[in-house]
Amino acid sequence: MGLLGGTLAGLAGTAVFFASFWVVSKANHGHRIPWFFGRPVHFPRRVYAYRVVAVLLLLLSFRAWMDAIGTWSLLMFAVAVIPTAILNGHHNRQVALGN
After folding, report:
1. What's the CA gap between 62 and 41, in Å, rounded?
2. Using CA atoms, how far apart are residues 87 and 41, in angstroms rounded to an integer?
């Protein structure tokens, strides 16, 4: 696959993971979304499919980068959730402010 393919798979996986959270965020307008444990009030079923695709893409990225940087490529998963964590914080802040 190569590093370019691994990078593209990682970016696509991050985008799909972000899109899955966007769907959850829109379904829970006015309700807080838990950070790590628990389920939000509304959880659309299609989110499961999005997350499976995201994890598969991130695993492809991990495999491609594994040859170049070894187990450090596991950091791809940590980097992939940063945009989603920012969206979660923004969503919960807006709920707390009543917007």
Report:
1. 33
2. 17
